[in-house]
Amino acid sequence: MDADALHSLLITPMPYGKYKGRMIADLPGHYLGWFAREGFPAGRLGTQLALMYELDHNALRHLLDPLRG
């Protein structure tokens, strides 16, 4: 996992849906889980959502804390 990929989760807003405008790093776990079950979108957004899902699912959200500074 590289710092740039993690940092992108903090600065990229969700472009659509119920949580439109919320940073990907701040999306709730149940929403990320829904994507994991239904399928992540193609492209960069899907990659970011999948990474955030893995962080959430494995209780690793704390890895983002030093980057929030």
UniProtKB/TrEMBL annotation:
It comes from the Bacteria. InterPro entries: QSregVF_b. Pfam families: QSregVF_b. This is Cytoplasmic protein.
